[in-house]
Each structure stands twice: as structure tokens, then as C-alpha cells.
């Protein structure tokens, strides 16, 4: 018997239904009940606003460090956000699209809201170029490299695909890599699809981004 089945009882909803949408919202672990009670009764109720400096601020850092361990990131270098689109918004806010380098190169298998977001950045002066996949599965590397030029500022890069009616899940990982001082590659969204090791997917996504850097150089 698969040893992973030993964990099934820790997710009560699995005893009542088949849960196939962990990419959007994972099955709630049994331990959440007690942890939420700790959060409300032992911290919020008893310590009030003091709870922020007595542990709440540090929780985000500790969780980020645990995720960072999967990708080989040093402690204090991994940030978590609500979803991948908001993560892109945080990253994009660091860049100025008003200058001559205002191009964002995407490919058409991006998660839809990512394309929506960068299309809306036209209001800030951004120019989005969407590279089309030939088979709806693979990143057209040659076309992607051809689209990256002196005007390119950002290259958001998927490590999974989101075809219509067949969206696969992923955790969000952003790896920023400079391309000859001209552009920034963002390799992200690495799917933890069993039996594939999520750490292996992250490593392969990083390697792909590094390959883009070398090719552009």
C-alpha cells in the first residue's frame, strides 16, 4: 500500500468526497481546527495588538523559509503572497514602464489573469507581446528568445500550462534573473503534481530561466 495513504485521514473532506482541485484550494488538514483556536484564543484574544510583534510578523518569514528550503533559497529570501497574479503585481510595481524599455514578453499558455494583468499595464506605458505556443503544451523557446530585445523589461515564464478546461495546479515560485542588464526573467508556478517531485520541477524551471539568460547573452 502506498505510504501516502496513511495521511488520508488527516484531511477529513477526503472521507466524504473526491477532491481534485488542490491547485485552487487544498483539502483542509485536521490540525487546522486547533491551530485556528490557538490563533484566536491564545494570541488574538489574550494579547490583542501585541500579538503582531510577539509572533505574527515572524510567521510569514518562517513559512517562507520552509518553502525556500525546497528551492535552495537562503533564509529570509522567500516571500509568500495571496496568489500568483498579486505576486506579479508586486514584482511589476518595482519597474518603470514609462521609458523606452517597456516591453513584457509572455507566452499564450500563461495563466489567464497574468495576461490580463500585463495587458492592463499598458496604462502605465507597458507594451505586451504574447508569443504563441505551436502545440498548446510547450514553450516555443526560439520564438521566445526572438521576442526578447533591447526594449524588453520583463519576461514572466511559466513552468506549467493552463489550456482551456484542463488547468493544472501549481505553487508560485518567482526567480528573478537579469539578462545582460536588459531584462528580468521570472520563472514561476512550479506544479507539485504527484508522482513528480516539486523540488525537481523548481530546479528544472530555474534551469530553463538560466538557459534563457545564457541564450540572450
Structure notes:
The chain is of the alpha/beta class. It folds into 2 domains: 32-71, no CATH class; 84-216, no CATH class. Helix content is 37%, strand content 13%. It is built from 6 helices and 5 strands. The protein has helices at residues 32-47, 52-71, 84-92, 112-120, 141-147, 198-216; strands spanning 103-107, 127-131, 152-158, 175-179, 183-188. The chain has a 5-stranded mixed beta sheet, with helices on both faces. Residues 161-183 and 187-206 have low confidence and may be disordered.
Rg, Å, rounded: 20 Å
Secondary-structure content class: alpha/beta
Q: Name the strands of the widest sheet in spatial order.
A: 2-1-3-5-4
Q: What are the secondary-structure elements, in order, as H or E? A: HHHEHEHEEEH
Strand tally is 5
Number of domains: 2
For the sheet with most strands, the description reads: 5 strands, mixed
Which percent range describes the beta-strand content? 5-15%
The average pLDDT value, as a whole number, equals 75
Tally of alpha and pi helices:
6
Residue stretches low in confidence (pLDDT < 50, at least 5 long) are: 161-183, 187-206
Separation, N- and C-terminal Cα atoms: 50 Å
User: Which range best describes the helical content: under 10%, 10-25%, 25-40%, 40-55%, 55-70% or over 70%?
Assistant: 25-40%
Q: What general form does the structure show?
A: extended
Amino acid at each position: 500500500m502506498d505510504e501516502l495513504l496513511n495521511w488520508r485521514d488527516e484531511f477529513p473532506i477526503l472521507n466524504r468526497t473526491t477532491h481534485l482541485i488542490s491547485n485552487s484550494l487544498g483539502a483542509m488538514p485536521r490540525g487546522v481546527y486547533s491551530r485556528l483556536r490557538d490563533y484566536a484564543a491564545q494570541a488574538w484574544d489574550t494579547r490583542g495588538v501585541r500579538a503582531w510583534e510577539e509572533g505574527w510578523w515572524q510567521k510569514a518569514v518562517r513559512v517562507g523559509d520552509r518553502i525556500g528550503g525546497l528551492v535552495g533559497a537562503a533564509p529570509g529570501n522567500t516571500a509568500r503572497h495571496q496568489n500568483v497574479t498579486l505576486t506579479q503585481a508586486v514584482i511589476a510595481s518595482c519597474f518603470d514602464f514609462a521609458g523606452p524599455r517597456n516591453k513584457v514578453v509572455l507566452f499564450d499558455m500563461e495563466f489567464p489573469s497574468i495576461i490580463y494583468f500585463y495587458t492592463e499595464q499598458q496604462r502605465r506605458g507597458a507594451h505586451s507581446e504574447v508569443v504563441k505556443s505551436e502545440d498548446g503544451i510547450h514553450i516555443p523557446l526560439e520564438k521566445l528568445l526572438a521576442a526578447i530585445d533591447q526594449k524588453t523589461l520583463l519576461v514572466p515564464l511559466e513552468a506549467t500550462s493552463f489550456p482551456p478546461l484542463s488547468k493544472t495546479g501549481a505553487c508560485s515560485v518567482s526567480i528573478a534573473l537579469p539578462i545582460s542588464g536588459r531584462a528580468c526573467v521570472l520563472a514561476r508556478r512550479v506544479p507539485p503534481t504527484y508522482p513528480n517531485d516539486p523540488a525537481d520541477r523548481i530546479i528544472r524551471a530555474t534551469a530553463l530561466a538560466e538557459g534563457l539568460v545564457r541564450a540572450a547573452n
